[in-house]
# Entry
Amino acid sequence: MLLRHTTAEPVVERQALTINPAKTCQPIGAMYAALGIHGCMPHSHGSQGCCSYHRSALTRHYKEPVIAGSSSFTEGSSVFGGQANLLEAITNLFNIYDAEVVAVHTTCLSETIGDDITQIVAKAKEEGHVPKGKYVIKASTPSYVGSHVTGYSNMIKGMIEVFAKNTGKRLDQINLIPGFVEPSDMAEIKRMAREMGVKTVLFPDTSSVLNSPQSGKYSMYPKGGVTVAELSTIGNSSATLALGPLGAGPGARLLDTQCKVPCQVLDLPLGLRATDAFVDALRKAAGVVVPESMMDERGQVLDFITDMSQYFYGRTAALSGDPDQLVPLAQFLTDIGIKVKYAVTGTPGKKFDAQMQAICGPEAKIKEGGQADLYQLHQWIKQDKVDLIFGGTYCKYIGRDEDIPVIRFGFPIYDRVGHQYFPILGYRGALRLLEKILTALLDRQDRDAPEEKFELVM
Ligand code: SF4
# Structure
């Protein structure tokens, strides 16, 4: 009864209070995106406490050591600014830690005191703190606006600002910008593109960085990540597909403006419909034919849904997570017969409510922004229960209190593993999601079955 103070009534419209937020802070997303460049050292311009929290959140989720520098603000830098600390940090990160790229993001503190990192990074270059052939990218990530998705998106824009150049020579390759998804999902997107015979540059790419194999040796910069050489070609690609309007869309549009690379913003390829849309868009952009092997993967998903539809139909769900993931998830659940009754996201975005309402129906309770928190979700569930909860680890308290299975989904997941290695995107990912849903439902059915209805074959 950890959440025993959550009551079913009354549901109060709050303006300024968030209880158990359905998001994390901007720099976490910026740090995650930065780790998707090979040889990149993220750097947190703020206090050590912020940096420790961001690193530990990522380390706990991915079960991998997450590297990052900190400007280590003291009382002095908190009052007079952190320029001197950042200049020294940039020097040290290149000279001692041999970074190829340093990715600086701000924090609440450095934003509040008004540190201008654009000016500081320009000064670092002028004064020779950045060795030749090395790069500093930056993103402004005040955490009192947006969420980890905003920070992720801002750091992608930081990459484009520095690396994207249009030299006038169009290359026969497609840029793929993934939203805030797992390393396993990034690897799956690349695999699907390879299967279709399309040359792509996926950035950021945390596969083989945050799910790298145990080799017996510590490597500060694991072998994965998009390389600087690859990034330097994105301005010449023939098209960009952004997978996720909030996480990837702004970067794709910036690249279009900056280098005239036409872009298309799609949903994350999660579930059958959204994956179909991705495959179709990639097919058209690259001028290829969808191979038979891809159609077989799709057919397996359809077969699973057909065979097991009696277990999905009529079930209900409550969702918590990021808009880019929740919209296609809600569509997928609705398509297989599961009714989404509630959804909350702490990531602000005006379109979310309307999109979700259109998918889930007018009776569904949908909320975004600061007060769309897990407390709100718990109150709704108390008023009228659901069969499944989809969300990060913090949802387990609601699941325990209300005796509802929780399907770990999104970020952060601190109490399970597998998300790093097994995708939920694409057709193969859809199979995994279906398996997770079905297992949760059938485990519950077995647990609750009276002796005479405890079935061997289900
Ligand atoms: S102070 Fe701001 S940047 Fe630092 S951990 Fe808190 S929310 Fe994140």
Remarks:
- Residues 426-448 form the longest helix (23 residues).
- DSSP finds 17 helices and 13 strands in the chain.
- The longest strand covers residues 171-178.
